[in-house]
Amino acid sequence: MPDIIVIGSGVIGLSAALTLQQAGYSVRILTRDRPQSTTSMAAGALWSATDMEGELRRWAAVSLKRFLPLTEVPGSGVTLQRFREVYAEPTPTPWYHNQIPFCERIPKQDLPRGMRDGYLIDVPIVAPPLYLDYLQNQFESASGVIETRMARSLPEVADEAPVIVNCSGVGARQLAADESVYPIRGQTMLVAAPQIREGFMYSGDIIHIFPRADGVLLGGIKKAHDWDQTIDPAIAAAFLEKCARVEPSLAEPEILRQFSGLRPGRHEVRLEVEALSSGGHVIHNYGHAAIGYTLSWGCAEDVLALARDLL
Ligand SMILES: Cc1cc2nc3c(=O)[nH]c(=O)nc-3n(C[C@H](O)[C@H](O)[C@H](O)COP(=O)(O)OP(=O)(O)OC[C@H]3O[C@@H](n4cnc5c(N)ncnc54)[C@H](O)[C@@H]3O)c2cc1C
What we know:
CATH superfamily: NAD(P)-binding Rossmann-like Domain
Bound molecules: flavin-adenine dinucleotide
Largest sheet: 9 strands, mixed
Mean pLDDT: 96
Shape: globular
């Protein structure tokens, strides 16, 4: 019997499983989908921490400390990228300005029309097709087992290990019977555009141009309560048109791949222990919405602290 079963192999499950494994616990992952078929595969996936307070800020800061050294590791899929992040309203200097290698306010005359503030920042960005493989390989090469199976209930899995870590993303709506979990549909497109050297992000109207290790990721949409995961050509055409307004060379790009995914929406991340009435303990770790990568390592560290108390 393993010490711990982690349910889910998205970025949240893999980061938690690796952190627990590296602390010396025997860990098995139980997952309905392999990492490459999760929502985490569809992500941008930028370390993006604007507007964060409290726990979120703490988790994001821990993750940043883990991601920055990974930008030096070949094959990790994590790179350091310069971004232009712009805002429709005056915005205070980011809280993390002295924790990243570069942060500078954009002079007013250099802002796109209609924008009132913005920063040039160097931040880590993840290419999920590379990074999820990298995490999976690390876990498996240290004897971690990934079992592909649907968990029908938490008590059922609790028979198989003393501690369960529930990283089931939007699947927690059923698995943890938590009706506050809802999908936030997303869709992205990876294109070949080596001429794009600088990233661009405007979250107001969701114009995302993300250069990363495997191409340039364009997006996107956020549609709450929509379970549809098909790639909609009309959605793609709409965000492509917005991206081309910022970077005209993106008007007719060479499309490498398209993604869709359901962000696990919730009013807040659920990271806490539940003692099951049937016996055993679950550490819930889900509901990371649009910032799962940004919070991944910080939440994994808290899972480890909770597991230490239980085991
Ligand atoms: C288009 C898009 C862009 C994004 N961009 C960013 C970004 O730039 N920066 C950022 O930080 N975040 C970003 N995100 C958000 C990020 O992708 C999510 O927060 C993150 O992927 C959530 O990870 P997760 O592991 O909780 O969920 P998932 O990746 O959905 O993984 C859930 C896992 O649980 C498993 N599972 C579910 N139910 C069961 C069950 N009953 N039994 C067994 N297994 C089960 C699934 O099979 C899967 O393996 C983006 C998301 C999208 C869609």
